[in-house]
Amino acid sequence: MCKLLQNIFSHNEVKGLEYIFVFATIWCIGGGFAEKDGKDYAKEFSNWWKGEYKIVRFPSKGTVFDYYVDIENSTLEDWSKMSSSDIVSTIDTSKSIPSYTIPTVNTISASFLMKQFIQVNWCPQLVGLAGCGKTQIIKGLLNELTGASDEYIQQTINFNFYTDANLLQMIMEQFLEKKAGKTFAPIGKYKLLYFVDDMNMPARDPYDT
User: What is the pTM of this model?
Assistant: First the structure.
């Protein structure tokens, strides 16, 4: 939560402090809740929070996870307001469908939160069931970060059953160059973003590491 608050404040005057605190607390405590065995734990947490915390009031519609903080106006806004005004005009039909991330409440919120952590050099981990769109959300965020400025470059590392430490090191070093002595760093002055996909795939070694 401290990292999230740090990045939100790093580019803004301190406004809506209590709103930001509530937002960070909700996501740090309840962001990992999901539906299991027919029970929606995220919704239950949302109902509990709305009933217990009355100072910053959320709209009755939806859950507490459906809103972000408009810092300038100290208000809670729907995530959909962060989407681009006209996504259709930006789509190049000559490219494949996986080249695009269509903005929804889930993709916008996940991208926003991961971006906050990346900007303070903290590694986020996106967890979810197979096929729920994790890879697409992350690729969309990386394309946004690398395309919007010359600060970042990216490298995707796909884990499989045979990935081991030696292979991982070899792949990670592909985008690095020797600076001085034993110091290696990304090419030029870039910040290198590694995207490690399918972390659960490699075979376990005898020590389960």
Answer: 0.79
95-122 residues labelled b (16+ CB within 10 A) or e (exposed)? eeeeebbebebebbbbbebbebbbbeee
Q: Looking at the DSSP assignment, which residues form a beta bridge with residue 176?
A: 186
Handedness of CA 143, 144, 150, 156 (dihedral sign): negative
The span from the first CA to the last CA of the chain, in angstroms, equals: 28
Q: For residue range 75-128, what is the model confidence (pLDDT) as tens digits? A: 899 998 887 655 656 666 677 776 667 778 888 899 999 999 998 899 999 988
- Taking the C-alpha atoms of residue 164 and residue 166, their distance in angstroms, rounded to an integer, is 6
Task: Determine if residue 138 is left, alpha or beta; phi over 0 gives left, psi from -120 to 50 gives alpha, anything else beta.
Answer: alpha
